[in-house]
Every structure is written in structure tokens, then in C-alpha cells.
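Onboarding guide, step 5: your first structure request.
Type a short instruction followed by the sequence, for example:

Predict the 3D structure of this protein.
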Amino acid sequence: MKNSKKLLFLICFTLLFSLSSNYLIKINANHKTYSETNLIPKNRVGLVLGTGKYNAKKEINACYKNRIEATLKLFNAQKINLVLVSGSNKQNELQSYKQDLINGGIPENNIYMDYSGFRTIDSVIRAKEIYGLEKFTIISQKFHNERAIYLAEKKGLQVVGFNAKDPKNKYTLKKLIKEYISKTVAPLDIFFNTEASYLGEKSKI
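The system replies with C-alpha cells like these:
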């Protein structure tokens, strides 16, 4: 009986913590994400959070495509001057970003590549510790920007988010569950002072 009560308490506590984490991260991002270029403040650097170019069906990933378009919008509106693309480069993910950004009109010399952004927290920490950034614009879908802003602010950074469009068919249940779990884990990363998986040589932008 005692074990059953402990298990029930643990389940209730986990659910409450998860709900609270997701709510607080979402509320924290209020008035810090933008969908229109004319409203967003200007920053020298835009940090694009990586995702695969192709989905499981070998079709172009809408999240990827829309992040490219959002980055080009910001650059063409002169709301960013430089682009830092951060991801793990699985299946040449980051090289695809670079080439598509160049094809869209951003000069190659204005694009920097971070191949060790294995997680969102890695990307924001490395932006500060490796690339010397204290203030920048995060570019991803809104649900992702909310979490990235929370993590970045807790690491002492000044950031805003520019929201790439959501896919037309929104997100799969698997994707929604993954993000829900990620928002639950984010406060734990801060509490336990999680550091980047890899730092290495500094390369200030």
C-alpha cells in the first residue's frame, strides 16, 4: 500500500512539474518572439537552430524550409547582418543550410557554422562561450523559440525569437510529445547547470 502511494505521488509530482515547466517557458516568451520583420528589434547576428532538410518520407522538411525563409526575410529586411547556423550536421544538415542560404542571396562570408549544436542548450551556450555573443536573434518555429529563449536567458544572454512559419499540417503527435518533454527537461538543465557537450577553440564573430 505504501509503495502504491509513493508511486501515485511520484506520478502526480511529475505531471505537475511537467505542466508547470511547459506553462512557465511559454509565458516567459511573451512579447519576446516576433513573426513580422517590421516589429522585431535589430540584432547583428541571427542564430538559426538546425533541423534535418528531409523528413522520414525523403520529402523536404517544412520546418527546415521555413527556417531558411525566415532567415532570408530577416537578412533582407536588414534586421540581422550575420547568420550563425547551429546543429549536429547529421546527413550534412548544416551544409544544406549554408548552401540554401547562399542560394537565397546571403553572402558566404556572412554565414558561420556551428557543427556542435547537438541540443538547443548546446547552441545557446556555444553562441556565448565560443562565438562571443551576448545578444542575438534566435530563428526557429515558435514552439522551439520559446524554449531556446528560456535557456538563453538563464545563461545570461539577451535574445529575441523570430518565428518561422509552422508546417501547414502542423506537427505529428511524436513531435509534440518530444517538445513537451524537452520543455520539461529545460528547467532541469538550468537547475543542474548543464554545460555544452563540447566547447573547443573560441571563434568570435
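Each response can be followed by summary notes, for example: The first strand starts at residue 33 and ends at 34.
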